[in-house]
Amino acid sequence: MRQPLLKHTHIIKLGRFLDMLYRPSEIAEEIGVTTDTVCRSYIPAGLPYTRDENNRIWIHGPAFAAWAKATIARKKSQRVPLPDGQGWCMRCNQAVEMIRPTILPATRYFELLQSPCPHCGGTVNRGRARQHPSTVQGEGQGMGVKP
Ligand SMILES: [Zn+2]
After folding, report:
1. Residue 66 confidence (pLDDT)
2. Ligand 1 mean position, distance from CA 98 (Å)
3. Is the N or the C terminus of the chain less surrounded, counting Cβ atoms within 10 Å?
4. Single pTM value for the model
């Protein structure tokens, strides 16, 4: 899975790119990511670039801006369900592992999983269907609680 590390805040900075070629380090500096992110995340994800005769990578400013906008728009429209054990961290803007989540019953059929984000420490929420609906329906009918 190759999701480029692009945040919505980066879009604001796209307007400052000029009609010229940039080194990956300059792109990184302009939008506030590391050069590594540009080379190992953006380029493998399809960012257009060219190489000169010295095998150095150059990125066209407006091409980068167009690619970034299209990528963010595509990401927003993707509503792929997350794998079990992962939740979406709104602060990191990425899927993160949910380790030992707290389970909060929300409705009869729905429960909320909460755990701290392993990257930023913020709260990650994930909803799911209640796992043991029988304990809901069976309340007060002497069904007992299973371990
Ligand atoms: Zn986070």
Report:
1. 87
2. 11
3. C
4. 0.49
